[in-house]
């Protein structure tokens, strides 16, 4: 749509996973290093958290791409509090038989799988995505499952990836023993103003745009509106560029961004899906609100 107008080879701010657009800034490089450290050092539990849209899943996929043939990977992606016993899901993640009605039998199947993998020189890695959805009892079941690691034999590595609520849940007194087994943990923070500018510049260059497109103040406004969350940055930029194409705008400034967001808000719900936490955030509504025009007017006059 607007690709040819702005000189792009493809859309730079698509929400679809695109390895060619992956930005490894400071915070994501740090998270990558922590994940890699946990894998290489056979950490029992590794915990990575971050806001929705911060790039957790994309980052995890990047790390797991580099695992060798001596590592066996199982993933549980669809988590919820009422998913029943965890063990059948774990067996399914590794392609094992989970039809046995006896939990003891299921456990024996999994333990034998781990022991055989160890004898072959393989490391077994279980990844649980959206782990904040696990109930306290399921997290405790996960800890109990890790009891298969005994002595110097690290049979199972577990990586939990989730939203900040996971960290809150892990602070529960009943999970004290669980927390004691976490060897590596890292929270991916939002991008600051400088990182947001680098993120946008990286994506523009990746699709063939070498000339500046957004003014410095526009980049600051995008950071403010998005709270530095990459997915929200993409939504804002894609929306603004669609409007810019229609209006023939070759340069995007902060006032134009606010006018576009204001127009979207007046047309209905603006699903940015965030709640700003920065100074002055009271000018913006919560994620369940409609961006009122009077609040956006305050931004243009600030």
Within CATH, the superfamily of the largest domain carries the name P-loop containing nucleotide triphosphate hydrolases
**Total tally of structural domains:** 2
> Which whole number gives the mean pLDDT?
86
Instruction: Specify the CATH class of the largest domain.
Output: Alpha Beta
Identify the strand order in the major beta sheet: 2-3-4-1-5
General shape: elongated
Question: Helix/strand/pairing class, anyone?
Answer: alpha/beta
Q: What is the terminal separation in angstroms?
A: 33 Å
- Beta-strand segment tally: 5
**Low confidence ranges:** 273-295
The biggest beta sheet is recorded as: 5 strands, parallel
Q: Please identify, by name, the CATH architecture of the largest domain.
A: 3-Layer(aba) Sandwich
Range of helix content: 40-55%
**SSE string:** HHEHEHHEHEHHEHHHHH
Strand content: 5-15%
Count the helices. How many?
13
Radius of gyration: 23 Å
CATH topology of the largest domain: Rossmann fold
Give an overview in words.
- This protein has 302 residues and is of the alpha/beta class.
- The protein folds into 2 domains: 42-188, P-loop containing nucleotide triphosphate hydrolases (Rossmann fold, 3-Layer(aba) Sandwich), CATH 3.40.50.300; 192-300, Helicase, Ruva Protein, domain 3, CATH 1.10.8.
- It has helices spanning 3-6, 26-40, 56-65, 87-93, 103-119, 136-145, 165-170, 176-180, 193-206, 216-226, 230-247, 254-266, 293-300, and strands at residues 45-50, 71-76, 123-128, 156-162, 182-188.
- Strands 2-3-4-1-5 form a 5-stranded parallel beta sheet, with helices on both faces.
- Helix 10 packs across helix 11 (230-247), helix 10 packs parallel to helix 12 (254-266) and helix 11 packs across helix 12 (254-266).
- It is elongated, with a radius of gyration of 23 Å.
- It starts with a helix and ends with a helix.
- The model is unreliable at 273-295 (pLDDT under 50).
């Amino acid at each position: 749509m607007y690709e040819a107008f702005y000189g792009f080879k493809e859309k730079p701010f698509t929400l679809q996973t695109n390895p060619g657009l992956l930005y490894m800034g400071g915070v994501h490089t740090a998270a990558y290093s922590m994940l890699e450290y946990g894998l290489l050092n056979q950490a029992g539990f590794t915990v990575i958290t971050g806001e929705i849209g911060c790039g957790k899943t994309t980052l995890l996929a990047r790390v797991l791409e580099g695992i060798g043939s001596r590592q066996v990977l199982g993933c549980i992606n669809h988590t919820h509090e009422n998913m029943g016993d965890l063990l059948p899901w774990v067996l399914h993640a590794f392609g094992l038989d989970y039809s046995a009605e006896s939990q003891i039998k299921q456990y024996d199947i999994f333990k034998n799988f781990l022991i055989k993998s160890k004898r072959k020189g393989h490391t077994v890695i279980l990844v649980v995505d959206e782990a904040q959805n696990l109930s306290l009892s399921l997290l405790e079941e996960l800890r109990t499952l890790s009891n298969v690691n005994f002595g110097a034999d690290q049979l199972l590595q577990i990586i939990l990836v989730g939203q900040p609520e996971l960290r809150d849940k892990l602070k529960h007194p009943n999970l004290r023993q669980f927390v004691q087994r976490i060897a590596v943990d890292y929270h991916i923070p939002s991008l600051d103003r400088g990182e947001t500018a680098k993120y946008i510049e990286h994506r523009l260059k990746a699709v063939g745009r070498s000339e500046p497109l957004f003014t410095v103040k526009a980049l600051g406004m995008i950071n403010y509106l998005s709270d530095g969350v990459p997915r929200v940055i993409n939504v804002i930029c894609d929306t603004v560029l669609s409007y810019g194409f229609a209006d023939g705008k070759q340069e995007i400034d902060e006032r134009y961004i606010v006018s576009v967001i204001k127009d979207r808000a007046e047309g209905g719900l603006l699903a940015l899906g965030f709640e700003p936490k920065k100074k002055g955030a009271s000018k913006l509504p919560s994620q369940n609100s409609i961006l009122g025009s009077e609040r956006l007017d305050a931004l243009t006059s600030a």
